Amino acid sequence: MINTHICQQKTSVKKRAPCFCFILFVLLVFFGFINTAYASSVKDLESQKINEILFNIHTYYVDDLALQNSEYIEYNSSQFERLYSKLDAYSKYLDKNELNALFNNTNGRYTGLGIEVKSIEQRTTIVKVINNSPAKQAGLRSGDIITAVNQHYVENSPIDLVAQYIKDSANGKVQLSITRNNTQTPLIFNLSRKQIKLTSVTKQLLDSGSGYIAINNFSNHTLHEVALQIAAMQNHYGHSLKGLIIDLRDNPGGTLNSAVAVADLFLQDGLIVTTKGRFYDSNQSFYAKRGDILKGAPIVVLINENSASAAEILAAALKENLRAKIVGSQSFGKGTVQSLIPLGDGDTALKLTTARYFTPLGESIEGIGVTPNVAINQTTLPQTNKAVIIKNEQSEQNTVFNTEELADIQLVKAKQLLSMQ
User: CB–CB of 150/174 below 8 Å?
Assistant: First the structure.
């Protein structure tokens, strides 16, 4: 069995997960990639696969749905769909393409345009543009509003439909119509979908001998990337960092194992997170091992309403072990663990909620989120603007910023707190 914990949904694989004796089982703390139970149709599944799904729901689902053996052996399609609808929003059947996409994201790969979008006032708005992506190269920006995809008008359409239009584009060619800064005439961008290597961690140096890292998601490579970036900053200064800002804003999650490992980098000891479910292997406690990469230097963590799952595990672990101050707004509140259970020949899978996780103080953040020590609400800033504020200089790629765009008061407060510790 492979055990993978994902807390954003980007996807990842968990290192410390137990082995189930009879099935390949991947545990995920999942948020952003696939988050609706009916994204894939279950109407046309074969009875054998339906029975396999029902067995796994009966055995592993976090809540006991009180199924009897006789009920799930001979379910017809309509009965199955009614039962399936009782599952939470994070449990779903994954077809071959969705399963491949999940594993690609877990391993830091992604095929697409390189944009993250959110529905804001019923408009599909770009909230992040990934570096080294077709979108970045074409000049798309955070804040752009997608009004049409390949001449299909989508301004008031669900995000799932917008994503489907992009995915179904012939030969991977995509034309986006964009409204920017309330302009009347749309901007037209012609792009091609391609595989993108995702970097989950970026860094910046601070003038005080401290450092800043932004963790965009938790993948199989995040622990290595965090350690590498911190080592690079320490080598630049010639001494250990005097402090660190960890930016988890807009981080939708990833693997639980990755979040636990990153938390362990900064903790000498203490409980990081526990998971609890009906199945005995869903009940685990994760503790920090001795050794703090920063040797006790102060940490400030930035979160916002889009920080979810694995990001919340890291933030809560550092906060409740009194290792970091948290600045920003209440986080998303994704406190459940999903297990990825391959079906049949392994080309498809069931993503099923099998546990809930709890912070070191025993609190569930499901539907609540992590509460910052210093609450500051703020509109999300593009990553390029964060870099400008940190460096106090303008990027060569983006030389004009207005005052509102640069007013990252959360980051300013984090730097202030760091200097005071």
Answer: yes
